[in-house]
């Protein structure tokens, strides 16, 4: 009789425990959709690999179209060398290819090679600076700033010619210097960020001689990858009196991919036109677009670490600049007030 009572009691206890476990599991499953983040597992505090916030569900909510914190990879920069059609510029592209693009360092490559490497495992990718010559190739009836549903790029220039080197990007806008080519290029770069993970988009003039090794060092030492690169913008400092802001001179400047998206996609062509200086000035206007962002901009003034020579208009000047590339980086004034103030006071500056 006693054994039967114990057995009945045991069965009752086991049944009660099973029922309690079932209720607890059901409650967790039901309430799971209301919790904000997963519990932090103990191993996540001891494993370096799992400390990245991308491993967790509780990363910070991003602003607008910014990416959440957590990615970890080496930074990449699209280098757009601004060029145009014609024999003069064909020749200039040739001696650019023969100088700073011909260092033999596989961390710089043609854009198409970078796209090919993007299909490989992360550790197998070598190229960090994909480059392309940027040419306005639209017909005379095309806008100067891409603002419609037409293709962003074309296969050839306006004369039906394509560079045999395979390193040119033909933008579907009418060729111009000050009125929209740069923002159209930024739209192109922002698209590459989405598809291939470009972290920064840089613009350089074709009369600028670049020290590639110093650029690589700068990227490695000072430019964090997406998404730690939010709202970064840099170049040699200059300033606008009319719009009361600093900006990066057009000889070389760069911005993080989120800013490239902001100036080219989030601002409309009408927005940009309304913001431009009375005398359209490509680099100053770009600074205006960037500093219209509602969040803080991190401006990196490269005046004290300038890794390029500019301007080098002729082939002789360009090659001389290349021979003296070992004298870089250059160290200048953070802002050239000696030049800016007299220009502003005389009404000649912007």
UniProtKB/TrEMBL annotation:
Record keyword Membrane present: yes
Keyword set includes Transmembrane: yes
Molecular-function GO terms, alphabetical: hexosyltransferase activity
EC number, as in UniProt: 2.4.1.-
Enzyme class at the top of the EC tree: transferase
Chain residue ranges for the region called Disordered: 139-165
Subcellular location(s) per record: Golgi apparatus membrane
Membrane topology note: Single-pass type II membrane protein
GO cellular component: Golgi membrane
Keywords: Glycosyltransferase, Golgi apparatus, Membrane, Signal-anchor, Transferase, Transmembrane, Transmembrane helix
InterPro entries given in the database record: Glyco_trans_31, Pentaxin_CS
Family recorded in the similarity comment: Belongs to the glycosyltransferase 31 family.
Name of the protein: Hexosyltransferase
């Amino acid at each position: 009789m006693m054994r039967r009572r114990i057995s009945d009691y045991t069965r009752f206890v086991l049944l009660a425990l099973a029922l309690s476990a079932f209720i607890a599991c059901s409650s967790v499953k039901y309430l799971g959709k209301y919790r904000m983040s997963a519990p932090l597992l103990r191993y996540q505090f001891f494993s370096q690999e799992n400390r990245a916030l991308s491993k967790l569900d509780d990363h910070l909510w991003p602003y607008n179209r910014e990416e959440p914190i957590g990615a970890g990879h080496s930074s990449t920069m699209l280098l757009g060398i601004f060029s145009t059609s014609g024999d003069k510029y064909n020749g200039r592209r040739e001696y650019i290819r023969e100088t700073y693009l011909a260092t033999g360092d596989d961390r710089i490559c043609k854009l198409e090679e970078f796209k090919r490497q993007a299909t490989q495992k992360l550790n197998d990718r070598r190229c960090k600076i994909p480059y392309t010559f940027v040419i306005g190739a639209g017909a005379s009836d095309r806008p100067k700033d891409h603002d419609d549903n037409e293709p962003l790029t074309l296969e050839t220039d306006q004369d039906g010619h394509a560079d045999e080197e395979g390193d040119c990007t033909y933008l579907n806008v009418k060729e111009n210097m000050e009125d929209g080519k740069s923002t159209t290029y930024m739209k192109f770069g922002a698209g590459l960020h989405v598809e291939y993970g470009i972290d920064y988009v840089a613009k350089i003039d074709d009369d600028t001689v670049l020290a590639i090794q110093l650029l690589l060092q700068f990227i490695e030492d000072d430019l964090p990858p997406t998404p730690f690169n939010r709202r970064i913008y840099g170049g040699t400092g200059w300033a606008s009196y009319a719009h009361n802001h600093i900006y990066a001179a057009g000889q070389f400047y760069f911005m993080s991919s989120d800013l490239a998206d902001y100036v080219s996609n989030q601002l409309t062509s009408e927005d940009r036109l309304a913001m431009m200086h009375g005398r359209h000035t490509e680099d100053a206007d770009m600074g205006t677009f960037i500093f219209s962002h509602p969040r803080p901009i991190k401006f990196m003034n490269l005046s004290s670490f300038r890794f390029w020579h500019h301007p080098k208009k002729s082939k002789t000047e360009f090659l001389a600049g290349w021979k003296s590339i070992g004298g870089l980086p250059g160290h200048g004034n953070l802002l050239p007030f000696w030049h800016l103030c007299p220009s502003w006071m005389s009404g000649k500056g912007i």
